[in-house]
Amino acid sequence: FTYTAIVPAAGVGSRMAADRPKQYLTLAGSTVLEQTLMRLLEHPAIGQIIVATAEQDPWFSQLLLARHPRILRVNGGRERADSVLNALQEVETGQVLVHDAARPCLRRADLDAVMTAGLHPQGAILASRVRDTMKRGNGQGAIATSVSRDELWHALTPQCFATASLQQALTEALAAGATITDEASAMEWAGFHPQLVEGRSDNIKITRPEDLALAGFFLQQS
Ligand code: C5P
């Protein structure tokens, strides 16, 4: 295998207002996390999938996929970057993918594209172009200025990098106290310019309650 996939799933997802983290909500006969894991398991170049969950997480062990031979669970950390770093310690391949637990609608063509582009030394991420007009607020609920959307992208996942580069970038960025909300931001901090691979906009991150119905609809489309 050339690739390992890391799935950070140690967050609480407070915007869902549910009784459990969003990755454990029901979707298409299983759960959000299992749907996400199936998209990765289906790919022949991905060997191990490492899921980082909270140490006291009572839900993961109840999943059917929890005992899958290619799935390994590790403890997450304080922030997403800590969770990814913990998982990176178990990676044995030269290339690694990081994919949000809450993005179950990933398509094979997008996965292929980011895996290929990620072989570039700078790495690569799936992204989609911003389609709405963008405004910067003035801090008082009104518009300060319009922001050109020409070079604005939504950062999606998977994000794909050389394992050693990502490990070094995350370690150094965390030690420096940099703000890291995705893996590419750690790479940027280290001076890399990951490729933007234009992906489908239905690769949504389940964030609000209405997103579950939308994801169910997207999963039904072939
Ligand atoms: O909240 P948000 O959707 O941005 O979280 C992104 C991902 O990072 C989620 O999949 C969440 O489970 C994960 N995460 C983590 N460890 C943390 C915090 C968040 O794995 N300490």
TrEMBL record:
<dbReference type="InterPro" id="IPR029044">
    <property type="entry name" value="Nucleotide-diphossugar_trans"/>
</dbReference>
<dbReference type="Pfam" id="PF01128">
    <property type="entry name" value="IspD"/>
</dbReference>
<feature type="site" description="Positions MEP for the nucleophilic attack">
    <location>
        <position position="149"/>
    </location>
</feature>
<dbReference type="InterPro" id="IPR018294">
    <property type="entry name" value="ISPD_synthase_CS"/>
</dbReference>
<comment type="similarity">
    <text>Belongs to the IspD/TarI cytidylyltransferase family. IspD subfamily.</text>
</comment>
<comment type="pathway">
    <text>Isoprenoid biosynthesis; isopentenyl diphosphate biosynthesis via DXP pathway; isopentenyl diphosphate from 1-deoxy-D-xylulose 5-phosphate: step 2/6.</text>
</comment>
<keyword id="KW-0414">Isoprene biosynthesis</keyword>
<feature type="site" description="Positions MEP for the nucleophilic attack">
    <location>
        <position position="205"/>
    </location>
</feature>
<feature type="site" description="Transition state stabilizer">
    <location>
        <position position="22"/>
    </location>
</feature>
<comment type="function">
    <text>Catalyzes the formation of 4-diphosphocytidyl-2-C-methyl-D-erythritol from CTP and 2-C-methyl-D-erythritol 4-phosphate (MEP).</text>
</comment>
<dbReference type="GO" id="GO:0016779">
    <property type="term" value="F:nucleotidyltransferase activity"/>
</dbReference>
<keyword id="KW-0808">Transferase</keyword>
<dbReference type="InterPro" id="IPR001228">
    <property type="entry name" value="IspD"/>
</dbReference>
<dbReference type="InterPro" id="IPR050088">
    <property type="entry name" value="IspD/TarI_cytidylyltransf_bact"/>
</dbReference>
<dbReference type="InterPro" id="IPR034683">
    <property type="entry name" value="IspD/TarI"/>
</dbReference>
<keyword id="KW-0548">Nucleotidyltransferase</keyword>
<protein>
    <recommendedName>
        <fullName>2-C-methyl-D-erythritol 4-phosphate cytidylyltransferase</fullName>
        <ecNumber>2.7.7.60</ecNumber>
    </recommendedName>
</protein>
<feature type="site" description="Transition state stabilizer">
    <location>
        <position position="15"/>
    </location>
</feature>
